[in-house]
From TrEMBL:
Residue stretches making up the NFACT RNA-binding domain: 455-564
Record-linked Gene3D superfamilies: ibrinogen binding protein from staphylococcus aureus domain (2.30.310.10)
Coiled coil: 291-318
GO terms under cellular component: RQC complex
Protein function: Probably part of the ribosome quality control system (RQC). May mediate the addition of alanine residues (Ala tailing) to incompletely synthesized nascent chains from stalled ribosomes, leading to their degradation.
Subunit note: Associates with stalled 50S ribosomal subunits.
Gene Ontology MF terms: ribosomal large subunit binding; rRNA binding; tRNA binding
Entry keyword annotation includes Coiled coil: yes
Protein name as it appears in the record: Archaeal Rqc2 homolog aRqcH
Length: 656
């Protein structure tokens, strides 16, 4: 939490949310909200907060619900259009407070990430406007109209001292590691790390800890947390082998000794590490849910057919049963008629049903028909008789033929129902055949994962991969992880452009590719954002790119020093296009017009204009839906969100 807030709440750190403008707020699943933000100098991004679990910026977002929930709608009412003024952690606890100002009115969004967690909106007097989950604890109510109270405070590891730790250990009935984990609000992993660095037996009873052990434990706590205090983070995801495959097991803002032998994937910020660990997993869950729902839709006809077939079997079984009963009634015509006569006379003489039961019981030896009676329903005026093992319900007010006809009518109705079910089965089979034809004709989307997907990229008309950064973080990553000595590096003469690399693979680069890379770097730079229609750029070799500034100079994140001769392209016209690849892969591509026209279809050309990225993305999306006549397919490969990632920063118009 401290590491996360040190990034989100520090105006001097890239990725800070200070002064970010709040857009729409969504609640894709219970317990989770997504706040759309516009961050100055970066563009649109999403802050995901899941109560009791996580909070971070995310590129992996769950789809928004079709009908918005009440909680995000109220948040929109109070904070949409406002600006974030602060992001703070409360007392080293798992609570983040986001300060918002809109129209001079201050509100606070409290994010509780402990236990089951909660998300609570407060006014400037810290009175609760609305909690996501209204709850009442002993001595603490989180409900509308109440003054928000923090949970009981824990000891902070940042304030650890020997005297305090000695007092905590003296009152503990547990071992060292559990005492540190619970009393100092550290949790198991960090408590284990403290014991490891101190060289102290973690299973030793806390009460038996010596003063020397307490001293080294205090020093170990300070050592573990020094990277956070000094803001020297090394965010990474820890991976362990599980069944011969590497699996992500933890995400941490600093290196831990207990993970020293495990493989790690490092990230430029803790936010990005959190998103890769939590956000990616959440998006995979969404994909699994979508696949399951699609499978469920596909199986709807099979389930209907199975139910119809089961119904027909039951209709046929009951039809045979009622026909058999009717036939049995005629077989025992004389006995049943005798019973009906006796019962009818008894009722006419005023005998009660209890008296009739008593008379029939005594007459069983003299009257064989009486022995067939199983039960009498006095309320309905019916008797159940056993006719050679077949039970029949006989109405004493009706004749023998009328009782038999009642069962024939039941059998007749079931026969009609069976015939209707047979026709329904034929309709279902026809519908299944139509669906199969429709599915076979439907376009299929083919996706692959590539290392360059997290950057801006295109393939030149000569087939060379050209990759550019999206922001300072990806500029750094591109140069440090993916730039090779044989590549060519492009940048603009003015600041505010992506570092752009042509991956040569050792081949000679044609002039057409160089010109396309020049147009790419200019179009996706501040030149487009400022509404200009041309700009200057240059290319250099990788060895001319350095992260080491001249003595006394400072180099901010995402910036580099270029030394030596530069190869200039002057007055390069801006202009990009987006199109669709519909071959081995189905995806949106974006870049210079000539490159996109050579490999894409349904190409839309763009120029600097007056519409923001989201509006242009929606316009292009509607064009694709109109052209392909398949909204489902277009949404999979070219939703407005996906298209927006291929567009230049700033505002645009559609040229053609």
């Amino acid at each position: 939490m401290a590491a996360l807030v040190s990034e989100l709440g520090n105006v001097d750190v890239e990725g800070s949310l200070i002064d970010a403008k709040i857009g729409k707020i969504y609640q894709p699943v219970p317990g989770e909200i997504r706040i759309n933000l516009f961050i100055f100098g970066k563009g649109r991004d999403n802050l995901v907060i899941e109560a009791g679990k996580r909070a971070h910026m995310s590129q992996y977002v769950r789809p928004s619900p079709k009908i918005p929930h009440a909680f995000p709608m109220l948040l929109r009412k109070h904070i949409m259009g406002g600006r974030i003024t602060s992001v703070d952690q409360y007392d080293f606890d798992r609570i983040i407070e986001i300060g918002v100002v809109r129209g001079g009115i201050e509100t606070i969004l409290v994010c509780e990430l402990f236990s089951r967690g909660n998300i609570v909106l407060l006014d400037s007097d810290r009175k609760i406007i609305l909690p996501m989950n209204p709850v009442t604890f002993r001595g603490r109510r989180v409900r509308s109209g109440e003054i928000y109270e923090y949970p009981e405070a824990q000891l902070s590891p940042l304030d650890v001292d020997e005297a305090g730790m000695a007092e905590v250990f003296a009152s503990s009935t547990s071992d060292i590691v559990r005492t540190i984990a619970t009393r100092y609000n550290l949790g198991g992993v960090l408590a284990e790390e403290v014991c490891l660095r101190a060289g102290v037996d973690k299973s030793k009873a806390a009460q038996d800890t010596s003063s020397d052990d307490i001293k080294v434990l205090c020093e170990a706590v300070k050592l573990v947390f020094s990277p956070i205090i000094e803001k020297q983070l090394k965010p990474c995801i820890v991976k362990k082998k599980v069944k011969d495959e590497l699996e992500a097991v933890d995400v941490i803002p600093l290196e831990l000794g207990q993970y020293s032998s495990d493989e790690k994937e490092f990230f430029p910020s803790f936010n990005k590490a959190l998103d890769e660990f939590f956000g990616k997993k959440a998006s995979e869950e969404v994909i699994e849910e979508v696949v399951a729902k699609k499978k469920e839709k596909v199986d709807v006809f099979e389930r209907r057919l199975r139910k119809q077939e089961e119904a027909i079997k039951k209709f046929e079984k009951d039809t045979d049963k009622f026909t058999t009963i009717a036939e049995k009634i005629y077989e025992h015509y004389q006995n049943i008629e005798e019973l009906l006569s006796i019962l009818g006379n008894a009722r006419d003489k005023g005998y009660s049903w209890d008296e009739i039961r008593s008379i029939l019981k005594k007459a069983k030896d003299d009257l064989p028909a009486a022995r067939t009676i199983v039960s009498i329903d006095s309320a309905e005026g019916t008797i159940v008789v056993d006719l050679d093992g077949t039970k029949a319900n006989i109405n004493i007010r009706k004749t023998v033929p009328q009782n038999a006809q009642n069962y024939y009518e039941k059998a007749k109705k079931l026969t009609k129902k069976r015939d209707g079910a047979l026709r329904a089965i034929e309709d279902t089979k026809v519908a299944m055949q139509k669906r199969e034809k429709k599915v076979s004709k439907r376009r299929k989307a083919f996706f692959k994962k590539h290392w360059y997907d997290r950057f801006r990229w295109f393939f030149s008309s000569d087939g060379f991969l050209v990759v550019g950064g999206r922001d300072a973080d990806t500029n750094e990553e591109l140069v440090k992880k993916y730039m090779e000595k044989r590549d060519i590096v492009f940048h603009t003469q003015v600041p505010g452009a992506p570092i752009t690399i042509i991956k040569t693979e050792g081949k000679e680069i044609p002039e057409a590719t160089l010109e396309e890379a020049a147009r790419f770097v200019v179009s996706y730079s501040s030149v487009w954002k400022s509404g200009q229609f041309s700009g200057d750029c240059y290319w250099v070799k990788p060895e001319q790119v350095s992260k080491t500034p001249e003595s006394g100079e400072y180099l901010k994140k995402g910036s580099f020093i270029i030394r030596g001769e530069r190869n200039y392209y002057r007055d390069v016209p801006v202009g990009v296009a987006v199109g669709l690849e519909l071959g081995a892969e189905t995806r949106v591509i974006g870049g210079p017009v000539s490159a996109i026209q050579s490999s894409g279809k349904y190409v839309v050309e763009l120029v600097p204009g007056k519409f923001n990225q989201n509006d242009i993305a929606k316009k292009v999306y509607r064009i694709y839906v109109d052209e392909l006549k398949d909204p489902s397919f277009v949404k999979q490969i070219a939703s407005p969100d996906i298209i927006a990632k291929r567009l230049p920063p700033g505002e645009s118009d559609i040229k053609k």
